Amino acid sequence: MDYPQKVKVAVLPFGDLMRINTSVEGKMEFSGVEGEILNVVLESLGLQYDFMIPKDLQWGRLEKDGNWSGMVGMIERDEVDLAFSYLSMTEERSRVIGYSKPYAFEEHTFVSLMPPNRKSTFKFLYPFALSTWICLFLTLVLMSALLAKFKNGIRSLGIHFFKLFASLLTQAVNADEGSRKYNMLVAFWHLFAQVIVLSYSSTLLSFLIQPLKEAPIRNFNELSRAVQGGNYQANFTNFSLSFLLNSNMDHLVKLGKIVRGNKWIANTSSLHPETVIKPNFFLALNKNLAKSYFGTRNDLFFSEDRLFTSYLAFGYNKRFCCISKLNTIISRISYAGLYGKYLQDSSVKLFLKTFKGYAESKTETPLSFDDLISVYILLVGGICLSFGIFLAEIIYSKFVSV
């Protein structure tokens, strides 16, 4: 087969995933995850190349006049033979360009600021779930009834209840002698109480050290409802906005109309690791890009929901000579897991680059009065209750003596 002297390749810078620099000799050099993949593929093809960047800096979308923009349009007009730079495979694009085998896939999600700590007066109830507290109370009542029965009515159920309750508060309790069944129940209760107390104490300490967060917005359905409420903003790329507007899900269409009406279009080219994400703001972007920029940040929440997934591939036109060889090379790259390796290397480099700021950031804060207000309320409430009972005993004793 006669190979052309030079193959024209359309490329597009895409954040840290695809960085394009020009050497002193005027030659384009590629770095980043996508740049590494491009270097491997082109070197393996062994051809001569001319590189071109689309003037509109677009991947390619169908305009109102029926023409394609960006790299897809360059292939359609036979201006280039290949196009590469995080180019998604879509049915609409496949009508005008050819696709190689996919070398990776993207998942579109969103990131937001980590929700603030949950503030509650009753933090001391957090260590156990409501069902656990109910079961613990029922167990306390049942054990009190059994001990009262085995004591042959010498002590009432109420006295046993308060003695067992005191043991849960780590108070010393005098053990009365009784039958073998009674003594066995008391021994099992003390073992049970010890496990409960230690479990509660350790769990409460973990809640104080790492407080609970407010519930974040976890998926696109919740995001749509939040944005419709008027207090939240969500920025989408043009590509993802088109997906929202053409979705068959009502909540996505409503979200897309709000985004389009407010022109909340995300500019991914301006992102960097220190990009400020404000409260009540959501940034929708692909997972690989999010990992590249924000993988080392602990102040952001990454949604596990996916708006869509699509495969990434090389685009080519009918003139391209080496489709079979290109697919063979990409298959080897996929089997070797090179894309994942390059993505991991990029994250490590980003981590090392931002390590100083990461190390200086303080996620641990000293306990404040707000953290302990529930304990103080419980203490004051207990003192008031005890004082009330004390007064009641004094008044009762005077009436009895009379």
Brief write-up:
The chain contains 13 helices and twelve strands.
How would you sum up this structure, described in words?
With 402 residues, the chain is α/β, with parallel strands linked by helices. The protein folds into three domains: 6-106 and 310-352, Periplasmic binding protein-like II (D-Maltodextrin-Binding Protein, domain 2, 3-Layer(aba) Sandwich), CATH 3.40.190.10; 112-118 and 216-309, no CATH class; 127-211. It is built from 13 helices and twelve strands. It has a five-stranded mixed beta sheet, sandwiched between helices. Strand 2 (19-22) and strand 3 form a beta hairpin. Helix 3 (130-150) runs antiparallel to helix 5 (180-209) and helix 7 crosses helix 8. The longest helix is centred in the C-terminal third of the chain and has 33 residues, at 369-401. The protein starts with 6 loop residues before the first strand and ends with a helix. The relative contact order is 0.15. L-glutamate binds at residues 88, 93. The chain crosses the membrane at residues 124-148, 185-209, 373-396.
